[in-house]
Amino acid sequence: MTPFLQQLVLGLLLGGLYGLAAAGLSLVFGVLKVLNVAHGQLIMLGGYGAFWLFALRGLDPFASLAVVIPAALVAGVILYWALFGWVVRAPEETRVKNSLLVGFGLALALEAAAVRLFTADERSITTGYAGAVLSVGGLAVPVVRLASLALALLLIGGLHLALARWRWGRAIRATAEDWEAALLTGIDVRRAYLLAFALGTALAGAAGTLVSVGYSISPSIGLEWTLKALVVVVLAGLGSMLGTFVGGLVLGLAEAVSAAAFGGPYREVVGLVVFFVVLVARPRGLFVR
Amino acid sequence: MEAAYGPFLALSGVTLTARPGEIVALLGPNGAGKTTLIRCITGLLRPRAGAIRWEGAPLDGVPAHAIVERGIAVVPEGRRLFGAMTVEENLELGAFAPRARARRTARLEHVYTIFPVLRERRRQLARALSGGQQQMVAIGRALMAGPTLLILDEPSLGLAPRLVESIFDVLREINRSGVSILLVEQNVQAALTLSHRAYLLEAGRVAGEGSAAVLLEDPRVRRAYLGPLAR
Fold first, then answer.
1. Tens digit of each residue's pLDDT (9 = 90 or more) over A94-127
2. B74-94 pLDDT, tens per residue?
3. Distance (Å) from the C-alpha of residue A191 to the closest C-alpha of chain B?
4. Closest CA to B178 of B150, B211, B199, B198
5. The whole model's pTM is what?
6. What residues does B152 pair with on adjacent strands?
7. Phi and psi dihedrals of B153, rounded to 5?
8. Beta carbons of B44 and A188 less than 8 Å apart
9. What are the C-alpha distances in Å from A150 to residues A15, A20, A199, B160?
10. What domains lie within chain A, and their CATH numbers?
11. Angle between helices A39-57 and A189-214 in degrees, nearest 10
């Protein structure tokens, strides 16, 4: 029983990062109706940001969030101005198609640039406390991953609060629901788009940082993270950041169950089956009423 | 003014005026161009030709979100509330523009005075309300902007006659407090009873205009809009 529980614990810890990765994608998709398939590559770049800050400056990866998140915000603003701001000019029905093209192009470019700049080597941040393990009732809980989960929850909670209370947070929610009505109440919808996209990119940067500490990064991890995030968005549905986080935990657990039941190479099976069942039975997501 | 969706001309040569303090009704069958006209005034659609002037200044080129700040607020057709947000959040979003925001506490109080039921329901999600209450939220949201012109697109749609009556009473009160109203309605009888003047829109052009009292007695209007059984 203990090995199985151990798998579940690790799955839950990883699931927190799935949730964080998905939150940014969900925010951008829900508000701009744009699917940024380069979201995983943004996560990858966030990971490299933290990695180099650690390797060159010796900056603690958790402290480097304070650098990576603002930098990612700025990167998001630039990406919006350069690319996605043009996509949202298209009518809503054609936006997703256009954004897929733009996103795939961006993903390829970012991945190629990362290989060129950082080589294709796998990297991870090994801090002095990397090996620390908390022992709870015979289960080993890696401290770094536990801290990552807590931080992911903190970030999602902060985002949730911002969307609920901040003036522009409400504007972002209103825009997500009905952009024309938002415009008619005096909300500058383009600015709401810009803010949502920049926030989404910042979340990707934060997720990347946490991936580079507890796990590992390489230029090619982008696609995998985009897919995980996409699965979580479908599981959880749009509209609730906390729901997205829970969706991430569900996927992490499902993968752990799968690995335990069918062996490591089949880690994704249960997750994908859950994904398929939700898509058929509850196409708007588990947590959307 | 002239407006089109792609090659499809929705408005051709429409001229209308609303004066301060007036209630002007815009009547006409489905597809006459009423909603198109409103989309032009509120900046959601750019007229292909002609001009919209507001308090002496042209509105073309002014972005839709800035038109609200100039004092034109709209209650869109079908209400278009933010259903997943609470009543109070909906109302506060009506005062999103900086100038309106400064006065939002007083205006919220004002809206709750006009529609006391909304105060009771202020923590409920907008989509959980009845149709009549949703219409109140939509009107309240528009009032939160502190408009000098309030535009309503089919406010009576889908409401029981008694509710329509009470909504129209509220509109009369709002107008008495100095707000001009442009009312788009299919409920011609109710609209003409409320308004001072009216325009008849047909197939994208103005087919008639005049004082509401005169139009109400006009046999052509009665036949066309109020049906053969109208008294």
1. 999 999 999 999 999 999 999 999 999 999 998 8
2. 999 999 999 999 999 999 999
3. 11
4. B150
5. 0.93
6. B75, B183
7. -105, 105
8. no
9. 12, 11, 19, 52
10. 2-119+134-281 (1.10.3470)
11. 50
